[in-house]
């Protein structure tokens, strides 16, 4: 029963937050709905950390400079977060996840790829920033998961725990995901 109440509470709180503010402003979103949300301005929200004066680390939702062309005023559903294998508590996003066969399988699954355009658009642009085409990666992941990883790595992507300049080059990527 508690599992049913949390998504309903999350939906209602986002609805009331939107109704009270009249628009979605990333800096006003709670941390548990920040990642994978899009402000009224059409800019993506992202979760960042900052150190308080006492040395403790806190999270805050910020507006990025990444503009989503066909969406605004959007808070991603828990169903899409689950089906796509993403984590709302992730700080920053990197194309490195595309190198993980388990993640790519979830991202390319029909329940994600066909029903969660916000997340697919984000990873489509991340892949494009690495010189890869997400539909091709998904085709390769379905037929040969190892081949899709090799294809992405041959485009110049390298797995690393810290996002490099090349993994953030999606910001200016003109490509847009299939809707």
UniProtKB/TrEMBL annotation:
It comes from the Eukaryota. Transmembrane segments: none annotated. Residues 154-179 are annotated as: Disordered. Residues 154-170 have a biased composition (Polar residues). Pfam families: PAR1. Keywords: Signal. Residues 1-22 form the signal peptide. This is PAR1 protein.
């Amino acid at each position: 029963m508690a599992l049913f109440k949390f998504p309903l509470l999350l939906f209602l709180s986002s609805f009331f937050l939107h109704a009270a503010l009249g628009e979605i402003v990333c800096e006003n979103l709670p941390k548990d709905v920040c990642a994978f949300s899009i402000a009224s301005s059409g800019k993506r929200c992202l979760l960042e950390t900052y150190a308080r004066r006492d040395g403790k680390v806190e999270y805050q939702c910020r507006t990025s400079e990444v503009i989503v062309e066909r969406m605004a005023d959007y808070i991603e559903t828990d169903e899409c977060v689950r089906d796509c294998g993403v984590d709302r508590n992730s700080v920053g996003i990197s194309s490195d996840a595309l190198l993980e066969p388990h993640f790519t399988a979830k991202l390319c699954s029909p329940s994600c790829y066909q029903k969660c355009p916000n997340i697919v658009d984000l990873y489509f642009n991340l892949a494009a920033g690495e010189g890869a085409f997400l539909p091709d990666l998904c085709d390769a992941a379905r037929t040969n998961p190892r081949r899709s990883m090799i294809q992405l790595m041959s485009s110049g992507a390298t797995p690393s725990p810290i996002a490099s300049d090349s993994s953030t080059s999606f910001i200016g990527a003109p490509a847009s995901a299939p809707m």
